[in-house]
What does this fold into?
Amino acid sequence: MSGTHLRPSTGRDHPGEQAAEAPIRLLEIRDTPLSLDEVFTAVGDEAAGGTALFVGTVRSHDGGADVDGLGYSAHPTAEAELRRVVEKVVADYPVRALAAVHRVGDLAIGDLAVVVAVACPHRGEAFAACRKLIDDLKHEVPIWKHQTFSDGTEEWVGA
It folds into this structure.
């Protein structure tokens, strides 16, 4: 056909389909409020067709009891463990960009406790990588939650 230009099928060999050389854009445990805009901006990548973002907030209840507030504490190795978790996600998925921030200190109901985002060439990869990131962060990074309940009781979670 005259005038028709066919794009060659490159599949997964195109550089944009691969993980970026330095995909870890933001990685921090901090005692200041978290920003969705900061995390979303950090994972911006022209080759990413999908970006998945997870936001964990302080809820008003847990286990059938009303929560008044909570505080997060982190072990001194928490940031190094977070990096280890992130590096595993980067090794297992074609991550173009990744960001993860977790809050420590006293938080109120509705505050952002954790924000993670992963940008990949396709949405399925982004969803899977983001799920792996938040699940492993919650299970492996030594950050503990101290909840206070409206009935005056309290509990440590993850300690």
Summary: The CA atoms of residues 37 and 43 lie 10 Å apart. The chain has a mean pLDDT of 91. The helical segments are 36-42, 78-92, 123-140. The longest strand covers residues 65-74.
